[in-house]
Amino acid sequence: MLVKLSTWRKIRFPVGGAPDVRICRREIDLGTLPGKKIGRSYYVDLDKEKSSSGDPFLDELLSH
């Protein structure tokens, strides 16, 4: 399920504890945060984000 980046930051982090929007956008662009850019808006894939371990190599291995 895709949610807007701003919504994800509110859900995932306490008030004042979320990383900067630019960092989150960069992580989506690099593929380390599961999500996508649609038009000018960024979205996070909640299902993939919750099931990821934080280790890209392990996540790649488990996805097959």
Write up this protein.
- It is a single chain.
- The chain has helices spanning 5-12, 21-30, 46-51, 56-62; strands at residues 2-4, 35-38, 41-45.
- Helix content is 48%, strand content 19%.
- A 3-stranded antiparallel β-sheet has the order 1-3-2.
- The chain has one domain.
- With 64 residues, it is α+β, with helices and mostly antiparallel strands.
- The chain is globular.
- 11% of the residues are buried.
- The model has no long low-confidence stretch (mean pLDDT 89).
- It contains 4 helices and 3 strands, in the order E-H-H-E-E-H-H.
What assembly state would you assign to the polypeptide chains in this entry? single chain
Strand segment tally: 3
Spatial order of strands in the largest sheet: 1-3-2
Largest sheet report:
3 strands, antiparallel
Low-confidence region ranges: none
Cα distance spanning the termini: 20 Å
Classify the helix fraction into a percent range. Answer: 40-55%
Rg over CA atoms, rounded to whole Å, is 12 Å
Q: What fraction of the residues are assigned to beta strands by DSSP? A: 15-25%
How many domains in all?
Answer: 1
Shape: globular
Which structural class matches the secondary elements? Answer: alpha+beta
Number of helices, where a helix is a run of at least 4 consecutive DSSP H or I residues: 4
Overall pLDDT confidence: 89
**SSE sequence, one letter per element:** EHHEEHH
